[in-house]
Amino acid sequence: MDQELDHRNMKENILTVRDLHETPEHGEIRENILTVRDLQETSEHGEIRQNILTERDLHETPEHGEIRENILTERDLHETPEHGEIRENILTERDLHETPEHGEIRENILTERDLHEMQEYISKFEATEAESIR
């Protein structure tokens, strides 16, 4: 559990919609791609550095079914209060419905609801532990 909660230091693969269009083999791009625009627009999200894709990317990237890591929508970044803490493969429920081949995305799929429920579970567990220590 502690490991899941200790989310920090991400360093790879920020892609904008523009990157995908301007890079002919975007399907092959797997590491550390930053545009000047990324650096300016990502000022508040400096901690999130892995595979950031927007919903538009998913629809416009022909092989999006093959993209299986760290999918965040722009909406996620704004709506998820601790987005700096979230490091693995986060999909919103909306993503799951809107991504035609979402069945192909197989690793660590968490919805925002999962995150809230996990936090509630951990809080209850910690409260129970505190009680048992007394």
**What distance lies between the first and last C-alpha atoms, to the nearest angstrom?**
22 Å
The number of helical runs is 7
Q: Rg to the nearest angstrom? A: 17 Å
Report the order of strands and helices: HHHHHHH
* Fraction of residues in β-strands: under 5%
Count of all domains: 1
Mean of pLDDT = 44
- Poorly predicted spans: 1-112
Helix fraction bin: 40-55%
Number of extended strands: 0
The protein's oligomeric status is: single chain
- Give the biggest sheet: none
Structural class: mainly alpha
Q: Globular, elongated, flat, extended or rod-shaped: what is the shape?
A: elongated
Please, could you describe this protein's structure?
With 134 residues, this protein is mainly alpha-helical. The protein is built from seven helices and no strands. The protein has helices spanning 2-5, 17-22, 36-41, 55-60, 74-79, 93-98, 112-133. The longest helix is centred in the C-terminal third of the chain and has 22 residues, at 112-133. The two termini are 22 Å apart.
